[in-house]
Design goal:
By secondary structure, the protein is of the alpha/beta class. It has one domain: TIM Barrel (Alpha-Beta Barrel). 39% of the residues lie in helices and 16% in strands. The chain contains ten helices and eight strands. Helix 8 links the parallel strand 6 and strand 7. The radius of gyration is 17 Å and the shape is globular. Bound molecules: 1,3-dihydroxyacetonephosphate. The site of 1,3-dihydroxyacetonephosphate has 14 residues, from strand 8.
Amino acid sequence: MKQLIAGNWKMNGLLAAKAEVVALANALKGRAVPEVLVCPPATLLRALIDTVEQSPVRLGGQSCHAKESGAHTGDISAEMLKDAGASYVIVGHSERRTDHKESSAEVAAQANAAWRAGLAAIICIGETDAERASGRMQDVLAAQIDGSIPAAATAQNTAVAYEPIWAIGTGKTASRADIEEAHAFIRARIEAKLGAAGRAIRLLYGGSVKPSNAKEILHAKGVDGVLVGGASLKASDFLAIIDGAKLD
Ligand code: 13P
C-alpha cells in the first residue's frame, strides 16, 4: 500500500483555512503522490469536500462517538462524518484519551463505528515520558494495541499511528532508532493479535513531524506514513512533508 501522509488539524481552522486546502489540492493535482489525508475540524468538512474532489486529497474526522445517533449532546457519529464527506476518522488520539478520558475499550468501539459507517480508522497509541523513562513503554503499547484494535482490523479499514506523547507538539521528535524500535514492537504485537491481516496494516509515526525531518522519518524501517499536527496547517509545510514520502 502507498504511504499515508495525514494531517490532524486538531482544534484549529476557520472557514478562511480553506485557502490552504485549495493550495494543497492544486499543488498535488496530476502528480504521483502518496495517500494524502486532511482531518480538519468537523465543522469544515462540507466546506472542503468540493475543493478536494478532483484531487488526491481525502478528508477525515478527528474522533467519533461509538453510536450511530442518539442523546449524546456535542458528539458526532461516524455516519455523520461519512455523510459530510470523510473517508477516515482518527480514534484514540492521546488528547482524546486525556481530555475526554477515553479508554481503549471506547476507542475500539469507535473503530468499529468507523467501519460500520464505511470509514477507515486511524487508531492512535503512544506512551508518556514517564512511562518510557520507567521502562514501561512496551507494556503500555501492548495494552493499547490489545484493547484499542478490534479483531476485524485489516489493512483496508485501519492504520495505526504511533504517537509518543512526549513528542507531540513539543518539537522533540523521536530519534530514528526510537521510531524503528517502537514500530518493530508494534508490528510484532499486531501480527500476534491479528495474524496475517496484521502484516499489511500501515504504521504511521506522529509527533513533531515537520519539513526538516519528514524524509528521514518516512524512510525509516517500518514506517508506512506520518500523522502530522502543527505542520499540516500550512499547505507549504504539508507539501514539503508529502515530498519526503516514498513512492515505490
Ligand atoms: P504535532 O505534529 O503538532 O507534534 O502533533 C502530532 C499529533 O498529535 C498528530 O495527531
